[in-house]
Design brief:
- With about 200 residues, the protein is α/β, with parallel strands linked by helices.
- The protein contains 7 helices and 9 strands; from the N terminus they run αβαβαβαβαβββααββ.
- It has a single domain, classed as Leucine-rich repeat, LRR (right-handed beta-alpha superhelix), CATH 3.80.10.
- The relative contact order is 0.11.
């Protein structure tokens, strides 16, 4: 990674921490880090990728995430400028078996964009061993976007509605305290009701 300074390289930790918060303020910095991440050999540890507070749009975020190898456990994309999640769909699908946390609060997501995301997170799919699994993601932060929560909940498939946990039961990303948690893997989004005014969708 000759293009990175020693201080830059320290942001890619052997513990699995990828800390790029507040460092990607220009297109050039996004390009430079995307190239560096493609060359980086990630550790065996699950990765926790911090991209928050960068004013990234969805295309910049997707470019950076697609450049990362290894198994990603958590992605922090809060406080950016993400309006659409379609560019991130391939990344989410690729890491469905390992991605446990997705932080998307304080962006510009609409009801429609969120409605498309939740079925993807709640979908059952064959695992690498051929067995059917549900998405691992159980911690989803979506507050302070432009989501009409009532409309969103009314339009979600029943199976996703059953998994969505909006009440605070004392759960954490590491541990679920919900009833029937062994049979129904919850998607926790306890602050979903906190939204900016919804905007008209195209």
């Amino acid at each position: 990674m000759a293009s990175l300074t020693p201080a830059d390289s320290d942001r890619l930790r052997p513990t699995g921490l990828v800390y790029l918060a507040r460092t990607l303020q220009t297109k050039e910095s996004v390009r430079r880090w995307s190239q560096a991440l493609r060359k980086w050999r990630p550790p065996q540890a699950p990765l926790r990728v911090h991209l928050e507070h960068n004013n990234l749009n969805e295309h910049d975020a997707a470019e950076l995430l697609q450049a990362i190898g290894g198994e990603v456990q958590a992605v922090y994309l809060h406080h950016n400028d993400i309006r659409c999640l379609e560019p991130l769909a391939a990344f989410i699908d690729k890491h469905a078996e390992t991605l446990q946390e997705l932080h998307l609060s304080h962006n510009r997501l609409s009801t429609g964009a969120t409605r498309a995301l939740l079925p993807q997170l709640g979908d059952n799919r064959p695992s690498s061993t051929g067995t059917q699994i549900g998405s691992m993601c159980s911690w989803l932060r979506l507050e302070f976007n432009h989501i009409d929560v009532e409309e969103l909940l009314n339009r979600l498939p029943p199976g996703i509605q059953a998994r969505l946990q909006l009440e605070d039961k004392g759960c954490t990303p590491e541990r679920c305290h919900c009833k029937n948690r062994r049979h129904v893997k919850r998607i926790h989004s306890k602050l979903l009701a906190l939204q900016r005014p919804a905007t008209p969708e195209d």
